[in-house]
Amino acid sequence: MIVTLLLVSHSLGLSFWNSIASAKGYRSGAARTKREPAAYKKWIVVTSSHSVENIKSLTREGEWQVVVIENTNSVEDRKLEGIHFLGVEEQQLLGYKISEAVLNNSQASRNIGYLYAIERGAEWIFDADDDIELTMDCATVAAPPGGGEMFPQAKIFNPYEFLGLKHLWPRGFPRKYMKNHTNDPDRFCLCHELRTPIVQHSLLRKDAIFSRISVEKSPKNDGSALQDGRENSSGELISRFAPPVILDIGFYTPWHSRNTLFHRSAFFILFQPATLPAKVTEIWRSYFIQKLLHMIGERVGFYPVGNSYSREDTHSSTNDWISDREGERTGELVRFLDAWECPHRKIINCTMLLATELSKRNFWKTLDVKAVQLWINDLQNLGCEFPLRNDFSKHILATAYEHGCGANCRRASLELEPEMDHKIDRSDLKLRAFSELARWCAKSGFSDLLQNLPNSSQLSTFHANNDVLADLTETVLVVTSNYPWNKTIGLLQRLYQPYFGVTIFCGPWFPEDYDDRNGSFPRMLRPFNYIHIEVDEMRSGWFAYYCLAKVKELRLRNVKGYFVMADDTTFNFWNAINLDAVLHPIGHTHSNGEGWWDDPAGSEAAKKTVRLFEEVYKEDPKVQVTWKKFTKGFRSQNNTNSTASELLMRADGWTASDFYYIPSAGLDYYSELMEIFFQAGLFHEIAMSKYLYSVPHRTLENSKFLSLLFPKPRSAWYLNYTAELVMIHPIKLSLLGNYTIRNRAKEEVDGKKPDPGNLKVTHLRIVTGLEIQRQIQETCLSFLKSCMRGY
């Protein structure tokens, strides 16, 4: 069986709290309702006996109407604009049939609130509690991971693990699968376009840790001892970079509905059971919902930072976890739902049949079957149209089917690390990486690299006070490879990964062909984040710019900017760089029409680019915005009144682009432009030159970069390296597995006399820990001068 989860989608972004852009992307069979003249589109449904002030905060954005379902008669003075209090008497007077089954049940009475909102024109319903307070944070809609055969327990997805909290689970996660469960990072995929999820769940902030349960091994039964998440999370927070994630069809995870948004296409699954214990209702209901979603070809999305937080930690104790028996039955429920197939074509019939089957298996009682029937009758009376069944196998986004250039979905992996009060402290990782690199260097005769190193606490303080290194933790490093990755990933990871917020490898990635077990290079580490680019897409580096366009689709949050470097570029990142501006080492230096312009990827591709902008995508508003930005930017940056097509086809040069930086504010424009360039087949160094002509950018002083392209000999890089260089290219790391070459470099550097003053400065830097990475670069990338300075 092929299944997928999904990592973040690029296109169908829908803010959790934006007004719903439109029903674009939703099938015509979505539930439609009768409208009152003053219909409201966005509703919040809560049950409450709590303070009015808590409830009033839910309407502070002004666009939301709130339905409050009370288990007593409504108090007359509770008349507030935008808030509809429904006491028991008001609920009865509404005349909904489901009242017969759910009245006076605080949880199941929500069904009345849903119907009340639907009757008044709701297109979106947010299921909440009155201890939830809305914030202005937006969780943007995203997309899932996948590919490969999955074991039964892999049908269960842990969203907290994906968000960096690997030892935490949502309430209702089947206990049987906790001990050895993993989401398996190699089964994710990244999609360029994906339908917006019609059910969107926002994970609450650290205040509401009711769904964060830690698991420890029990010495008695080798089972799971559940403890409160606050006690065991050690202050860990969801990664600030965490994107949304969408579960693909066939995947399940539990959620508590009190922080979930439902589109009208999903209103038919809003049903709340009436006979289950309170702790079980929401959990089993979420599994029931997911099965029905799969049958109509839809998915549920999870969003990392809530649009809300909980004032009261009312659900965080272990008493709120379901019993051992109920936990075992949850696993049975998931297995049953995964195997169950509906023989009917209408989703109404499937809903009723599934409700009946759950009753037969004692997951709920016959009263719930009756309630489901009454619920459906009420929806029909309100004029709702139910969505059609779909062959869900057509909707599975398996990466096994990833073929050809520009595939909509591709293999990818994103493993994030937790944070402590929104601080990233990787001092232990930095020291461990340095030690491992030092041992690797020692094989070539370099020793004494581990003397005078600071301890973890010292290094943490030193680096926290270094503005350059602190800023790097808010950036993403993208490392590209023109060819299938070889044995150097582990080396690159140790050199860079501890210092950047996220490090992502991009290029042709074939794990079955990657073997670093012979000891010539350090082994690959986890986390290993990658985006697979097909060989034909990368085409030996001709379209390397495409990588950052794919990274953009991850929809990482809170990123200051993106560094992009080829795997044979060395980046001395301790040198200060302005992170608010585009940086390219040389800019558009080669201003004539020589070189690549005579190739089909030059002038012919430029002409095709113009056709795409002016003909193929003439009516595409998104593409036309990019076209206008290109025209405006090109004219303003180059003081010309030429047309965009003339500017694009002008053979005005190329630029070597093995290292550059794009701030987050400019990522959308870069990515949209490069998508068109890629489709047209425009060569990397021409595409980057055209881009630079259209944006303000900075370049490096000649003394800050070193290019070993013609006529300079590549093999003498170690004689030209200095720590003050921002970048040097190329240094072929794959050659460093050859000890003969490394020893030859050592012998040549040995012939140089070290500067005693420089030796003193470098020694002090090592002692303070401010330049530990400089030593890593200068030693273990065979920047062997530092090895000769007698540390």
UniProtKB/TrEMBL annotation:
Signal peptide range: 1-23
Keywords: Signal
Source domain of life: Eukaryota
InterPro entries xref list: STL-like (IPR005049)
PANTHER family from the UniProt entry: EXOSTOSIN DOMAIN-CONTAINING PROTEIN-RELATED (PTHR31362:SF0), GLYCOSYLTRANSFERASE STELLO1-RELATED (PTHR31362)
Protein name: Nucleotide-diphospho-sugar transferase domain-containing protein
Gene name of the encoded protein: Acey_s0106.g3764
